[in-house]
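An instance noted here:
***
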Amino acid sequence: MRHRIGQIQPRYLGALLGIVLATVLYVVGAALKAGGSDGIGAYWLILFVLPGVVGAAVARKRGMAQEAEPEGALAGLITAHFVAALILVALVEGVLGIDWTQYATQAGQQVAGEVKAAIVPATAIAGITSLALIYGGCVAASWLGAAVYSAYVGMVSHETPSPQANV
């Protein structure tokens, strides 16, 4: 089993963490909203640096120090694929779940007709904007996590010169 895990590229191990993280944040946010809360705060999104940290750590551990940041960024890219699919499915499901009959009785037939005509372009714009934010955010956060991890390891691993060496 250990041999098989050793063959998995670092980006996929980081992405696995990112996918689990995205799923947990989505479920917890939905549960909080169902309970009457505002959901999770945006500050929790900082956790999306972790796939990059994992990708960089595994790459460095395997002797691929030069590939640490690219592996971290690729972990973010793979995570973004999952998050984008999750968000787009939720967006489409939300639009398809609108009860137009009830909406027409509350807002009126004319308003309901105009909103129904505008919902497809609005959903497309929201989806495209979401994709740009998701991909940019996941890749940037993971790359940042990998870069910070690599910088930290670089600082810690270098030995400081002894005072006698300068004499």
The chain has a mean pLDDT of 89. The two ends are 53 Å apart (CA to CA). Residues 55 and 72 are 5 Å apart (CA to CA).
